[in-house]
Amino acid sequence: MIEAYIGLDVHKHSVYITEMKEDGSVCEQYDIENSEGNWINFRDPYLSMENQVGLEISTSGKYVARTLVDMGFSVHVMNPSKFPQIFQSVKKNDREDSFKIADLLRMGEIQKKGEIYIPSPEINEMRSLTRYRRSISVEMTMLKNKTHAILSGHGTVIESTDIFGTSGMRKIIAESTKLPYSERIVLSDIISRVSSLKASALKVEDEMARMTENNEDIRNLLSIPGINIYSAVTILSEIGNKEHLASYAGLVPRQFQSGNRDVKGHITKQGPSMLRYILVLAAHSLIKYSKKMRKKYLSIVHRLGKNRSIVTIARLLIEIIFTMLMRHEKYEDENDALTERKIRSMSMRARKERPKINFTTVKLLKEGKIMNPST
After folding, report:
1. Under a CB-based contact definition with an 8 Å cutoff, are residues 179 and 154 in contact?
2. Distant-in-sequence, close-in-space partners of 315: CB < 8 Å, separation ≥ 6
3. What angle do CA 252, 256, 260 make, to 5 degrees?
4. Which residues have a Cβ under 8 Å from the Cβ of 192 and sit 6 or more positions away?
5. 8 Å CB contact between 342 and 213
6. What pLDDT, on the 0 to 100 scale, is given for residue 367?
7. Splitting the chain (375 residues) into consecutive groups of 10 residues, what average pLDDT does each group show?
8. In sequence order, what are the residues at sequence separation of 6 or more whose Cβ sits closer than 8 angstroms to the Cβ of residue 63?
9. Residue 274: which of 75, 130, 60 has the closest Cα?
10. Model's pTM, two decimal places?
């Protein structure tokens, strides 16, 4: 029997707590500072009783959830968007919100409607790397667009698939001689930043390979044509343990049904955007390297158009991935040699010497012993 249902309204510096009994009566309501020492004090009275804790998803909420799970609490993280009639009410304050969370927890509504998976420490490490790797891609895209704008502003168009590839860089350098001095300075700085970003991306991907070298799921994902170490680790770190994976990824269409009328709209875009982003990228590669998936794509593209067809392939891909992970199977395709090359590449990257992390400069800057060159 559950002796306490505990609702937490978590903020960066404080947390409001409501403790509720099985019959819905409130035992206690109070607030504490959001700090490690206070959570240790919070834990002690509950060590000998069955309890459940509920809280909303947020950056601070993730820290509190991981802390309480490590302490042995049964923690349920809720998605407030699943309960708009409650969390968009006119009566909203910390005391009221923590009460509502405790009551929803007691009635089992969080568990049924809007519970969010709490990732393990290993998954959190993967996510840190993959999300930082995406930020590098975003910055590279921004620099690519800036480069195109500079060159096209002077009548130059670079046709290379990747303007920051070897041939693209050669063309940029050759064309830069025609530009004004100020634009050449800007391009020179962009090329320097791109070089640094590429090196950072390789380091991050090498660390992904080290972290997951012996992970069977990653090796199975690498058997899919078009999936590399970055996309494999991203997919595994983002999916958690969801049963309805395509829906979780936000790749199912919205549905409007009334009587005999059934209309399907755009995809829901619920779930992590990072997962949708990497699945769509993988779908583009998949139709390039897999004959059977390209055939599937071409069979629907005339009916749905290119964009919706790629989303369809991405949705099919996540369903395939879910089946593979549940059955611990590799992807069945005609290109087994490609799979072996990818796995060999991952093993080689995993065995690279790990770069040393040097925090000396940061430490000296904080202590004021050296001047920041940007000031």
Report:
1. yes
2. 246, 249, 251, 252
3. 125
4. none
5. no
6. 54
7. 88 94 92 93 87 90 90 89 71 87 92 78 89 94 92 85 84 87 91 92 94 91 90 86 48 43 46 82 90 90 91 88 87 75 85 72 50 43
8. 34
9. 130
10. 0.73
Residue 271: left if φ>0, alpha if ψ -120 to 50, beta else—which one? Answer: left
By the 8 A CB rule, do 102 and 7 touch? yes
DSSP 8-class letter at 158:
-
Phi, psi of 371 (to 5 degrees): -85, 140
Instruction: State the Cα–Cα distance between residues 145 and 66, nearest whole angstrom.
Output: 40
Q: How far is CA 237 from the centre of its chain?
A: 7
The single residue listed with the structure tokens 């698939």 is: 161
Q: Which of 20, 99, 121 is nearest to 55 (CA)?
A: 99
Residue position matching structure tokens 């611990």: 328
Contacts 24+ apart (CB under 8 A), 116-124: 116/57, 116/77, 116/78, 116/79, 117/240, 117/241, 117/242, 118/65, 118/66, 118/69, 118/75, 118/77, 119/237, 119/240, 121/66, 122/211, 123/236, 123/237, 123/240, 124/66
Lateral strand order in the sheet of 74-78: 26-33, 14-20, 4-10, 51-56, 74-78, 115-116
The pLDDT, as a whole number, for residue 49 is 82
**Torsion of Cα atoms, 204 then 207 then 213 then 216, to 10°:** -50
Say how far apart CA 110 and CA 311 lie, in whole Å.
Answer: 30
Cα–Cα distance between 102 and 26 in angstroms, integer?
9
Residue 345 has a pLDDT of 87
End-to-end Cα, the chain, rounded Å: 61
Closest CA to 256 of 247, 265, 266, 269: 265
**Per-residue CA distances from 181 to 98, 141, 176, 177, 186 (Å):** 61, 24, 9, 9, 9
Segment 219-233, tens digit of pLDDT: 999 999 889 999 999
Q: Looking at residue 91, what is its pLDDT?
A: 66
